[in-house]
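User: Predict the complex with uracil.
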Amino acid sequence: MSPASKLLVDIHTHVYLPRYAALLRSRAGAAAVPFIRTNTTPEGLAEDRLLILDHEPSESLTSWSEKLKFMDKHGIDVSVVSTANPWLDFLPASQAHTLAAELNDDLEQYCSTGPSVSSSTQIKRLYGFGLLPLVPEITTSALLEIVNQISTLPHLRGLIMGTRGIGNGLDDEALEPVWAAIEKAGLVVFLHPHYGVDGSAWGDKDNGHVLPLALGFPFETTTVSSKYHFSFRIRPQREMKAATRLILSGVFDKFPNLRLLLAHSGGALPALSSRLASCIDHDPAVASRLKHDARYYLGKLYLDAVTYGPEELGFVSDVISRSAGYASVASVSKVANRSTGSKRMLFGTDHPFFPPLSATEKWKSVTENLEAIASVQGWSKGDKDGVRGRNALALFNLQG
Ligand code: URA
Ligand code: ZN
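Assistant: Here is the predicted structure with uracil placed in the model:
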C-alpha cells in the first residue's frame, strides 16, 4: 500500500444514504422534485430513477455500496463523502432537524464500520461531511445542537451546505452563531451548489443539462442562486448568497479560522477576484466593512480540484497564492507562486454524477481530473501529491 503521503483522497464525492433514499422513494408521487421513482426496464427489472433537478432527465440511483467498488476501480484510497444535493432543503424545520441528526449518525456508522486503508494504519477509507438542517424557521439552538453532534462524531470532519442558509443566504446575520460554532469545532464547511442561476438566461434551445451544470452550478457557488428555479419553500423575492457575498459580509474578518471548501474550484470567483477588488475599492461603504483587499480572502479558502483541465488548476493556484500579498493594502506584492496555492487545492470526482456510458469504463470525471493534476506547469511532484491526497490528510486531520 502507498505511504500516507501518496494516498489518493477524494473530497468531492456524494452519497444518497439509505434513509435519505427511502425518504425520496416515499415522495415517488410528489408533484415537485426531489423524488425517486421505480421504473421497470425493458428486461422487466425494477430500476430506481432519481430526479433532483427540475427540467432534468432522471438518473439511475447509485447505491451506497457501490462507493467502495468505485474507489477500488480508480485507485482511490480514501473518500470524504457528503450527502448529495438537495440535502434537507425541501423539508419542514422539525423533520429536517430530526433527519439531520439521524443521517449524521448513519454516516458515522458507515464510515466507522468501513475498512481501513491497510492493516498498518488507523486511516479509514471513508470519512464524511455531516448535514445541518438549514431550512427556514429552524431555530439557532437546533442548528447549534447539530453542529455539536457532528463535532462529536469522530469520522465526520466537516459539513456540507448549499447556498441558501435558512432562507436568506449565507451572509444572513442569523448564521453568525453557527459560523462561530463551526469555527470553534474546527469543522470544514463544504459549500456546494444546487439551484444554479435564473434559467431564463439559458435561452430556448435544448442544451440538456450542459448550461445549468457547466455554468449555473459554478456561478451559484460564486455568488447567487436562482429565485425561481425550484419550488422549495423559500422567500421568493430574496436572492441567495454564496462565496462572494460571504466575503463581502466580512465573515472571514469575524471568523478568521473558518475553513471553507468551495466546490468546482470556486466557480468564477478566482477569475473575477481582481474585478471584485476594484469594484469594492470604488464603493467606500462596502470597502469600509472589510479589513483587507478582496483578493486576500481567496487565500483563506480551500478549493476542490474539479476543473477537468491543468490550465485552470494552474490559474486557480496562482490566484490563491498571490492573496498573501494582499494582507495589507500598504504591502501589496503581486508575486504569485503556484506551489503555495496548490496547498489549498484537493482532488475530487463528484461521483456518482457524470457516469460513463458503459459500466466497464473508468470514469472520465476521475481520469481527467487526475491527468489535469499531473500536467499542471509549475507544480512540483510534491505539490501534485499534495493535491492528490496530502492536503486532504492535513485539512481533515486524517492520521495513521
Ligand atoms: N449534479 C448534481 O446534481 N450534483 C452534483 O454534485 C453534480 C452534478
Ligand atoms: Zn458535487
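The CA atoms of residues 141 and 178 lie 9 Å apart.
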